[in-house]
Amino acid sequence: MFEAFIDGLLMILTWKALLYLFLGILIGYAVGILPGLGGGTTLALMLPFIYKMTPGEAMAFLLGMHSVVQTAGDITSILFGIPGEATTVAMIVDGYPMSKRGEAGRALGAGLSASLIGVIIGALVLLFSVPIVRPLVLSLGSPEMLMVIILGLTCISSLSGKGRRALLLGLLSAGFGFMCSLVGQDRQAGILRFTFGQLYLWNGLPLVPVMVGFFAIPEMVDLAVRGTSIAGKLPEGKLTKGVWDGVKDTIKHFWMCVRCSFIGVAIGILPGLGGGVAQWLAYAHAVQSAKTDEERAGFGKGDVRGVIGPGASTGKEGGALVPTVAFGIPGSSAMAILLGAFMILGIVPGPDMLTKYLPVTFSMVWILVIANIVTVLISIPIINHMARLTTVRGSIMIAFILLLCFIGAYCENNHIGDVIVMLLFGFIGYLMVLYDFPRPPFILAFILGKMTETYYYISTTRYGFDWIYRPKVIFIFALAVLAGAYPFLKGKLRSVVGGNR
Amino acid sequence: MKKWPFLLALVLFFPGGISAAPYYEGKVIKIVVGYKPGGGYDRMARLVAKHLPKHIPGKPSVVIENMEGASSIIAANYVYNIAKPDGLTIGTFNRALPFAQLTNQAGVKFNILKYAWIGSTAVEGTVFAIRTDLPYKTVDDLLKVKTPLMIGCTGATDISGQFPTLLKEYIGLNLKLITYPSSADIMLAIERREVDGRAGSYSSLKPFIDRGLVKPFIRGRVPEKGTEHLPVNEDLTSDKKGKAVMFMFSAADLIGRPFVCPPNTPEDKMKILSEAFAKMAKDPQMLEDARKAQMEVQYTSGREILKVINTVFNQPKEIIAEFSKHVSF
Predict the structure, then answer these.
(1) Cβ of B207 and A44 within 8 Å?
(2) Is-contact B184 A271, C-beta < 8 A?
(3) Confidence at A297, pLDDT banded by 50, 70, 90
């Protein structure tokens, strides 16, 4: 196996493969930063170029591109409060307030270094899971998936904020998210729900326009009202010095960063959950790490841990490759395209990838790691300049950012409905900010809502109600109950300890 | 000296008169795909985009636009109602769209017979496949099954759900349908033995058949290389209505990967495009790329496809009623 590991490295250590890797990184970087272009579409565009490449070169090119998209998307989320990718929304919650406080450099430094750790951990998992990957993935059936989704939903309690009133508002917000997730043609019987005679709504509300509207529009209104630049009126010196502080923050919270990476990996391995979920769960975990109420209240207002957590969730990239490689079954649309690329290269994904083509599999591990190290190295010197964008006058930035929002939303389906959805959810998002409704629970419920329904339906049609008695189901459900009750238990525990004092 | 004003006039009034540039020179053809990047329709469209230009005089550029939604009805409506009939927009959509029109699906704003049809670049035969580790060898074995076979599908409104429904209804197979979010999820469920099999296009199942995960048992009327020997669903039922419904259903297989232009696209442009598609389908480079991507290319002309759709639409009323009972959209 060690030999294959070295062979994998040698496959990409040719000058041509490295050249393609850098080209891929460059394209991925641009795609990640611009909110309109998605990773999937770009991969599909690049597919025709790989026919004449060797497997090592093509993998370096495509995977290099794919693996930096999220890292670069985080930059847009932090600087402008608009998601660079659908998977980088959670980064906004604490990253953008840090920018507003003039700490864009620190936030970027923390986010990028955390995402580097995430990728490396993801790659290590991909490496070490080779012998056990098949039994691992196969041991999780639909009922177990349902329970994992429910475990994810319990994060609503920690995403809602502190206190009874906040929890109530959070649950209301999540309920609304659930309702929005039900829009569209129901999968089981083909019934149309809340579509109001619009074909556009058959596929449900599109993720990107909803998120862009929900987070970016209220911020733009706020920026316009403040009448300053994003970072307000701050001395410039502070702004550009923070990068190393951010890196130090990541080192300080290293173990939390590692835990968040593993959350990312786990979500990545489970096919069908998707990258968006990974960042939110990692964020929720970061929030849970708050030790006191004051610390807890700081989240959402620019706590650096709220940047490190989502950043580290890039571990999912390594995880997501596992089902694609080991079963030939893609977990996302980007992975589906990558699978198409495998076939063009004459590699049949499936069990063979873990034996006959092991060096190819290992070369992917290497590409993930090298691409992200390069990305971070490229970024660190230019972050300072990027951070300065937050000092540009608001009246100029608003026009530019809104343009990006419109393009980003429209590119989802090339349909005018995307723009309308974005504006509508911008309005709803603004009202929610105005009346103190937390927005993250909405997004989590919106992403997980339809999946909850689907997997509940599958579990029940397949197994009747017997699935409830499966040991793994009971175990994960117990975890979910524990996670849901955790904030209250912690409060109780603290008051008991405090009472003794 | 007297001649030069005449020459000037000639040059001024007939700038292109001397060497007529081909219509497509310097133009961009847009292929509107009704699905996300990465799926079968998208991959075929991108293959076409790569190889079509060299067969059209003037070598235009070909670009892809993904317009996802409503099982590609949105894209079909766009090509029918909004795109200009100038030969610069081509649409590719769900091969089962004729059924959407036939069963009066809400939201359909096209008449499938009135598109300017270029044709189809592939035949997509449907097969019904079961896990190889199950003890069944023949269709007779399947008919004797006591506890229902669990069949994964992606919805009651597509081929993966409708093909097994017809088998259940008219052949009497003991099946239970379970709906998954995508066919990738079904394959994973088959791997972990949560479900026993599925129906789908042969091309999409082929990698899993080759690897020995599933084995095909029954096919629809339209064969593909490798499925000729399988029993055909129509032959397994004695129900006359059932036979007719299954025949109608097989029309989608022949339509495979359809390519159309907006209605009333001028004849001359359609001739160029149809000829280019026919030539492209025989182009060795195209076939080599397709083979690498594990796709089969087979051109069926627009005229032939229209003939098939017409036969489907001209079935007796009671057969169409029976068809609508099982095939919704």
Answers:
(1) no
(2) yes
(3) confident
Mean pLDDT for A203-212 is 86
Residues A26, A395 contacting (CB under 8 angstroms): no
Mean residue pLDDT of chain B comes to 89
Asked if A344's CB is within 8 angstroms of B156's CB, the reply is: no
**What's the mean pLDDT when you consider all of chain A?**
84
Mean pLDDT for the stretch of residues A301-311: 89
**Considering only A39-43, A312-316, A356-360, which range has the smallest mean pLDDT?**
A39-43
Residue A199 has its nearest CB partner, among B73, B178, B182, at B73
Give the pLDDT of residue B1.
46
Quick one: which of A44, A137, A1, A38 has its CA closest to A339?
Answer: A44
> Are the Cβ atoms of A44 and B37 closer than 8 angstroms?
yes
pLDDT digits (tens, 9 = 90+) for A91-112: 998 999 988 888 888 899 999 9
Q: List, for residues A361-410, the tens digit of each pLDDT value.
A: 888 888 888 998 898 888 888 887 888 888 888 888 888 888 888 888 88
Within 267-306 of B, beta carbons closer than 8 Å to A belong to: 289, 292-294
Among A46, A187, A195, which would you mutate to test the B interface (most chain B Cβ atoms within 10 Å of its Cβ)? A187
Report the predicted TM-score, pTM, of the whole model to 2 decimal places: 0.83
Assign domain B21-122+256-326 to a CATH class: alpha beta
Give the distance, in angstroms, between the CA of residue A365 and the centroid of all CA atoms in the same chain: 20
Helix (H, G, I), strand (E, B) or coil at A139: coil
Interface test with chain B among A414, A415, A421, A454, by most B beta carbons within 10 Å: A414
B contacts of A271 (beta carbons < 8 Å): 184-185, 188
pLDDT in tens, A17-30: 999 999 999 998 88
Other CB atoms within 10 Å distance of the CB of residue A1: 9
Joined together, the tokens standing for residue B7 give 């020459």
Spell out the SS3 assignment of chain B: CCCHHHHHHHHHHCCCCCCCCCCCCCCEEEEEECCCCCCHHHHHHHHHHHHCHHHCCCCCEEEEEECCCHHHHHHHHHHHHHCCCCCCEEEECCCCHHHHHHCCCCCCCCCHHHCEEEEECCCCCEEEEEECCCCCCCHHHHHCCCCCEEEEECCCCCHHHHHHHHHHHHHCCCEEEEECCCHHHHHHHHHCCCCCEEEEEHHHHHHHHHCCCEEEEEECCCCCCCCCCCCEHHHHCCCHHHHHHHHHHHHHHHHCCEEEECCCCCHHHHHHHHHHHHHHCCCHHHHHHHHHCCCCCCCEEHHHHHHHHHHHHCCCHHHHHHHHHHCCC
Q: Does domain B126-251 have CATH number 3.40.190.10?
A: yes
Per residue in A166-187, pLDDT (tens digit) is 889 999 999 999 999 999 888 7
Q: What CA–CA distance (Å, rounded) separates A401 from A383?
A: 19
- CA angle at B244 for the pair B243 and B245, rounded to the nearest 5°: 95
List chain B domain ranges: 21-122+256-326, 126-251
For A:393-432, CB contacts with B below 8 A are 413-415
Quick check: do B21-122+256-326 and B126-251 share a fold? yes
* Helix, strand or coil, per DSSP, at residue A14: coil
A142 contacts in chain B (CB < 8 Å): 189, 194
